[in-house]
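Bench notes, afternoon.
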Amino acid sequence: SEPITRIECHTDTIYNITFNFDGSLLATSSKDKKLRIINPRDGSVVHEGQGHAGTKACRVMFTGKNRLFTTGFSKMSERQYAIWDAEDLTKPLKMEMIDTASGVLFPFFDSNTNMVYLAGKGDGNIRYYELVEDRPYCFYLDEYKSSAPQRGLGMLPKRAVDVTHCEVMRYYKLHQKGLVEPIGFKVPRKSELFQEDLFPPCMGDQPSLTAEEWISGTNKDPISISLKDGFVATEKAAFVAPEKKASEEESVPKGEKELLKAYHDMKAEIKRLEEKLATANIRIRQLEQQ
């Protein structure tokens, strides 16, 4: 099938792509040290700004309608996090140094508790922070510590947590030798009743839009569910791929004239792509010299 649109605004390697909550925008971080907010339907850049100054990988995610959270490095290779106003990327609302370790920090956001978890590749700890709307925008809470370094971390959906034991988040930690360890974050409470302040309605397993509705420009927040009576997966219709319509370009050339025309068209396309590649290589060399 043909792509809906092509996003070609990046001049260097893309490190990270993340959608906002209703799918109307996506944010990217790139090797050119820029943060971009893009309209995914037409590929246009809505906002753009300079991100972290370091040369190592930067990560970005939406933490609200008008908030971005990034992790990256300073010019001195110090690990940092930053909070941005999605409407103005000229400078961060807050940027703070974390430590001088070398591993890339992976951020995870829990929208129900407004908490951000930071896990570094090669680290044994997981830091967690609470985000607020006003200054100072972010509060350090605590950290999970372990002597075993992690190769990666995966966050489970909120509907997978154990609400009877006040488990607010669960991760799967990948160890160096391939072992996968579940890690649960729990709030210490004696009551066995459902804690509505810890478990507000969370994102369910049903889409709020079809692909056709999204392509047409419709935006809608995710469908929320309550975990009070536990999560029960909904029955989903079997996916049926749409039939691919044969286009004029996909038809097989017939006869000598059509074959000759197809040959020349292909040569012209190859030449165009070679010129585009040469331009991109020149741009990359210019950026490397800066």
